[in-house]
Design goal:
This protein has 267 residues and is an alpha+beta fold. It is built from 7 helices and 13 strands. It is globular and about 50 Å long. Bound molecules: succinic acid and manganese (II) ion. Succinic acid binds next to strand 4 and strand 12.
Length: 267
């Protein structure tokens, strides 16, 4: 079992669980090397920002059909430590990946993600129920200086707040309206900084309010995200769906592999 009973209760109460030292140095090194390889690819799965055109987001590494396909990330998405935790909190083995990404908040230039709930966008992708979770892995130490995530604990209990299209950031997306965020801070718990070391990881609910600031440090801040959805909750047909790299139509359940698979299958 990946999560203890206590961690499952915390997830239900707070909307997230943090795992310290979940990945070894060797595993983190492998994922970093793959991230560096993918960063050089010219494809729509790599979205760039800033004067140096460094990648802001690299997507779809988990999918064999993708130009960014990576054996290491495919193996990672199947580990009991990751997929097993998602299975436990979503209470079904039938999970597929709605999308995967490496958010590379590059030194000095890596910019803000305003407050949002992931399910704000994902519902617009045609997904009916908030039965998705994200598993995030830190590939670098994440500090407030380097643009770590912030969570508002317990905010997933608010349910989905209608988002607004936000043009203020390098990557345009749906954020939560300011008045709704302020109200949630006035009535709910205080936000926390999700700082940690390379190899730490976090599981969080798709309705949890989260954000991150500018990376003002001289080091890149890379974080990997696997977003799991129940196969039974796959998107309905919608007009003008977003592309495959952000809204997957590969709805095959992800198979669980051994915890050693990351190093064994990818080297
Ligand atoms: C996100 O919320 O999807 C990304 C935030 C970050 O990586 O800083
Ligand atoms: Mn998000």
């Amino acid at each position: 079992m990946a999560l203890t009973e206590k961690e499952i209760v915390c997830f239900d109460q707070d909307g997230y669980v943090i795992f310290r030292n979940l990945f070894s140095e060797k595993e983190v090194d492998l994922l970093r090397r793959e991230a560096a390889r993918i960063a050089d690819l010219e494809t729509e799965c790599v979205i760039r920002e800033g004067q140096t055109s460094k990648p802001k987001i690299m997507l779809r590494m988990h999918d064999e059909q993708s130009p960014t396909a990576s054996p290491a990330y495919i193996a990672a998405s199947r580990l009991p430590r990751i997929l097993g935790s998602a299975i436990q909190v979503l209470r079904t083995k039938n999970l597929y990946i709605h999308h995967s990404k490496i958010n590379m908040k590059s030194a000095i230039e890596g910019s803000v993600w305003p407050w949002h709930q992931d399910f704000g966008q994902w519902h617009l992708d045609g997904i009916t129920n908030p039965d998705l979770v994200t598993f995030m892995i830190m590939l670098d130490d994440a500090t407030e200086f380097s643009g770590c995530l912030y969570f508002q604990p317990g905010s997933h209990h608010l349910g989905r707040i209608e988002p607004q299209w936000d043009e203020t950031t390098a990557y345009k997306f749906y954020s939560t309206p300011t008045d709704a965020v302020k109200k949630s801070f006035e009535t709910g718990r205080q936000p926390i900084a999700v700082t940690g070391r390379a190899g730490d990881a976090v599981l969080f609910h798709c309705n949890l309010l989260h954000a991150s600031g500018q990376n003002l440090s001289a080091e890149d801040r890379r974080q990997v995200y696997f977003c799991y959805n129940k196969t039974a909750n796959r998107p309905q047909n919608i007009e003008e769906p977003r592309p495959e790299h952000v809204r997957s139509t590969n709805w095959n359940a992800v198979p669980l592999e051994e915890d050693s698979a990351l190093l064994v299958n990818s080297c």
